[in-house]
Amino acid sequence: MIDTQISIRPARTEEAHALAALHTRTRTAYYTAGGLPAQELAGAERISGYWQRAVDEGRAQVAAASGGRVVGFLMAGSPKFDDIAAASVRELQQIGVDPTGWGRGVGGLLHAAFVRRLRADGLTEGVVECWEANARAQAFYARQGWRPDGSRRPGPLGRDYVRLRLTIPC
């Protein structure tokens, strides 16, 4: 069920620290679900600069509930992979939804915003990496039409990060 009170908008400069905290909660939820001990994950204080840069560069969008509370985020930009032409593909660097809001359609709204951005930029292809132990994300991306492209890199606990691609019609 999609929450109709959710709006997607560009992240604001003053939200960078809150986004870092939300990112910490979301990644703790999926990495611990995959078996990684929570103490091995960096806290918000270590990734605030990362989020500040993303917001300042216009790469971050948020899903905001009524009242303005941020319940999810989307970060996209030029791909970081050497074998992908940055001029023709956009990387979905991450989608994150507050774990207390999982299953309510927020991720789908954020994904739709990514697809709109692809189209607005005249692109038809996206790429994302997903930890193979994150079954929830793997299923989400598969439902959205993403497919593995054969590229992998080592991840925690001997479980790889798998690269996925999405092609959308013109």
Question: Could you characterize the architecture of this molecule?
Answer:
With 170 residues, the chain is of the alpha+beta class. The chain has four helices and seven strands, in the order βααβββαβαββ. A seven-stranded mixed β-sheet has the order 1-2-3-4-5-7-6, sandwiched between helices. A hairpin with a 5-residue loop joins strand 2 (60-64) and strand 3 (70-77). Helix 1 (16-33) packs across helix 2 (44-56). The radius of gyration is 15 Å and the shape is globular. 29% of the residues are buried. The model has no long low-confidence stretch (mean pLDDT 90).
Can you give keywords for this protein?
170 residues; seven-stranded mixed sheet; 4 helices; 7 strands
Q: Helix and strand layout, with pairings?
A:
Layout: E1 7-10, H1 16-33, H2 44-56, E2 60-64, E3 70-77, E4 90-97, H3 106-120, E5 125-131, H4 135-143, E6 147-153, E7 161-167
Parallel strand pairs: 4-5
Antiparallel strand pairs: 1-2, 2-3, 3-4, 5-7, 6-7
Helix pairs in contact: 1-2
Rg (CA only): 15 Å
Spatial gap, N to C terminus? 28 Å
The ordered string of helix (H) and strand (E) elements is: EHHEEEHEHEE
Helix content: 25-40%
Parts with pLDDT < 50 across at least 5 consecutive residues = none
Describe the global form: globular
Tell me what portion of residues adopts beta-strand conformation: 25-35%
Total beta strands = 7
Structural class, from helix and strand content? alpha+beta
Helix count, DSSP H or I runs of 4 or more residues: 4
Strand order of the largest sheet: 1-2-3-4-5-7-6
Mean pLDDT: 90
The biggest sheet, with number of strands, parallel, antiparallel or mixed sense and barrel status, is: 7 strands, mixed
